[in-house]
């Protein structure tokens, strides 16, 4: 089959010839001795020239196969989500507890857009001071961020303590989990407050900053990751429950590697 396919794709059969008037006996041993008779035998056993795809058709077929495979994968995923079991009464209660824990520790709640204040554009635009690690930061932006970082950390700790699955853990384990997830939860809380119109994130529910301001204020390349996450999440329009559950997952899985 490989010989026949290559012959058709490269249009080689017109160049084949036979020294014995096309009367060669073709088997596994002699098949390499006469290309013409080998090709004629392929035809005689039913191989069809019009079924062999050229390069462009072969690429198109492979692409179609991949697209169909991806479509089936998505359909199976959607089907599995549609048939997921309904949460039990206990699970609904836990979801409610997690949601309320988030709402009570999330600064400004759903009114963050009305209450936010934009960091002046001249702050955080020109990094000046050198840090011990060699990075340069804008001292004004750095100073503004340090004012809100401690309250933001406190709110994450308060959120965690309101979750029964966390508060029941030994104190040492609680500290390990918080150390592993505090930055991630604060980043998530900022990311879900990304505003596409102003291209800003609102930190701690009060300070709206642009990408370069956050980067030059001390977060460096991490700011790109948070802004990119914000852009992605903005398409989903997550509600409080979804954000709360994401935070709970980050919290309880942060010590998995230890």
UniProtKB/TrEMBL annotation:
Matches recorded under PANTHER family: NUCLEAR HORMONE RECEPTOR, THYROID HORMONE RECEPTOR ALPHA
Annotated InterPro entries: NHR-like_dom_sf (IPR035500), Nucl_hrmn_rcpt_lig-bd (IPR000536), Nuclear_hormone_rcpt_NR1 (IPR050234), Nuclear_hrmn_rcpt (IPR001723), ThyrH_rcpt (IPR001728), Znf_hrmn_rcpt (IPR001628), Znf_NHR/GATA (IPR013088)
Stated family: Belongs to the nuclear hormone receptor family. NR1 subfamily.
Residue ranges annotated for the NR LBD domain, each copy included: 90-258
Cellular-component GO terms for this entry: RNA polymerase II transcription regulator complex
Domain Nuclear receptor: from-to ranges: 1-54
Name of the protein in question: THA protein
This protein's UniProt keywords: Coiled coil, DNA-binding, Metal-binding, Nucleus, Receptor, Transcription, Transcription regulation, Zinc, Zinc-finger
Function: Nuclear hormone receptor that can act as a repressor or activator of transcription. High affinity receptor for thyroid hormones, including triiodothyronine and thyroxine.
UniProt feature coiled coil, ranges: 57-84
GO biological process terms, semicolon-separated: cell differentiation; negative regulation of transcription by RNA polymerase II; positive regulation of transcription by RNA polymerase II; retinoic acid receptor signaling pathway; thyroid hormone receptor signaling pathway
Molecular function via GO: nuclear receptor activity; RNA polymerase II cis-regulatory region sequence-specific DNA binding; zinc ion binding
Domain of life where this protein originates: Eukaryota
């Amino acid at each position: 089959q490989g010989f026949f396919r290559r012959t058709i794709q490269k249009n080689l059969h017109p160049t084949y010839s036979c020294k014995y008037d096309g009367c060669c006996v073709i088997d596994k041993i002699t098949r390499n001795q006469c290309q013409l008779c080998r090709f004629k035998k392929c035809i005689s056993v039913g191989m069809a020239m019009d079924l062999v795809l050229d390069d462009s058709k072969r690429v198109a077929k492979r692409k179609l196969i991949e697209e169909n495979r991806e479509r089936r994968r998505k359909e199976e995923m959607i089907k599995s989500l549609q048939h997921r079991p309904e949460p039990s009464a206990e699970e609904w209660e836990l979801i409610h507890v997690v949601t309320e824990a988030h709402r009570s520790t999330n600064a400004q709640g759903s009114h963050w857009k009305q209450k936010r204040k934009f960091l002046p554009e001249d702050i955080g635009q020109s990094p000046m001071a050198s840090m011990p690690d060699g990075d340069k930061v804008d001292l004004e932006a750095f100073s503004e961020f340090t004012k809100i970082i401690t309250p933001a950390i406190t709110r994450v700790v308060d959120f965690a303590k309101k979750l029964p699955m966390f508060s029941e853990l030994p104190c040492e384990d609680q500290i390990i989990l918080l150390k592993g997830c505090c930055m991630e939860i604060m980043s998530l809380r900022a990311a879900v407050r990304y505003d596409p119109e102003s291209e800003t994130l609102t930190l701690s529910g009060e300070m709206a900053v642009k990408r370069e301001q956050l980067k030059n204020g001390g977060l460096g390349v991490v700011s790109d990751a948070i802004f990119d996450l914000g852009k992605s999440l903005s398409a989903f329009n997550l509600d409080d429950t979804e954000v709360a559950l994401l935070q709970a997952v980050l919290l309880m899985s942060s010590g998995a590697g230890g």
